[in-house]
Amino acid sequence: MPGIPQETIDRVLDATDIVELVGSYVTLKKVGLNFQGLCPFHSEKTPSFSVSMEKRMFRCFGCGASGNAITFIKRHQKLSFPEAIRLLAERSGISIATEEDKKRETLVFCVAKAQEEFRRQLKSGSYLSPLKYLKERGVKAETQEEFGIGYAGSVKELIGSLKRWGIHDKTIPLSIGLLREKEKGMTCPFMGRITLPIVDHKGNTVGFGGRAIENSQQAKYVNSSESAIFSKRRLLFGLNRVKISDDTVLVVEGYFDVLSLHQAGFTNTVGLLGTELSAEQAKILERLAHNVILIFDADAGGKAAILKCLKIPRQNLSVKAVLLPEGDPDEFIRKGKVTEFQGLIEKARGIREIAVEIIGHRVKEESVERLTEEATRIAAEIPDGMEANLFAEEAAKTLNVPAWVLQEKTQARREKKEKIAERKRGLERFLVNELLKNPGLKDMLRLEALKDLFEEGEEKRILVRQILKQ
Q1: What average pLDDT does range 106-132 have in this prediction?
Q2: pLDDT tens, 298-322?
Q3: Domain that holds residue 211
Q4: Strand order in the sheet with 150-152
């Protein structure tokens, strides 16, 4: 469509929750994996209108109307195609300015060419250490090829490669953390590391994970810095290689966990880019499968990650978890325990059950009062009120305290949290109204920094539009 690039249209569709959109005009009820309601395009008494979150499509089995979010809003609001896209873009806080998309495409192009260079450097034969390391970790050559694994051995060759592809402006690789300026010139944060490309849902390489291969390197792993194209909360490692089976996706913590599990036949595995599952990653998982099994190490970090997962909204996901009896998934598989691993997956339990068990196991080491406070805090952060109440009840039983104690404490915390949230929303509305009335304030306020303090909603969408106008 003239004026609006296809990438922008795709971004608008990706940012639009079709169930939420249609649900704002039609009363929907969850039936199986889909949502059903009365068709808004013809008169009917029995629901024949279905919305699929997984496919991001709607269809009426009565009148035959079907399509995506753009089709729905275009037909429902009687808009032209460009008007429908602009309306959805505005709802999602997305600019449809061509220049912005061109900038994004340039950044993606830069990362893609860096990926090609890192891959070339690994395969060149000039660097034996990374090849030896990958062999020791059991990463096969075909897996290296499939996942695009590379090595950052020479920053000079990287810069030379980027220049040959027409990337002469150093601000481009600097803005995405591919290069960093030092007193004596340029460096790359991935130098001396195995590079693992991180690919978005469109198949674009948007960043890297870097694995140290020498003990002298300070951090075991580094990730690309946050940028216009990279946000680790919105990405999953292995997303472009995942193959869903039994409507189930396995979620692990590490890059090499993903590689080992894929080699062992668990190709429905993706990896987090940190130990905490984010709400944005949960939405990606919703599009992949209905069932999610989280697989964490049984150490303190893994147990903490399970507890944190309780606060993530998961309306359309059935989430279970496995705490490995020893080591991480990569070590487990490399020890030849594939059959045992499969058995653990089959016996995966609900995260609420495991969370209560984790708290219960700490009774011998910590006071009941302290654990009661922690259970109350966790319950107050669980989005679903019924789920929170069940967690409080089960935790109380484990801690051998009356259920009403935790439930009352939880309710008090939830009410306090809601009051704080309401005051925050009030401040957001006030700030946005002042910005609209006094455009000159934009020059005085750091709007980009303020954006991340706003909750998702209309006020944030307006603020984003103001930022884009700066």
Answers
A1: 95
A2: 888 888 889 999 999 876 789 999 9
A3: 98-230
A4: 150-152, 193-199, 205-212, 221-223
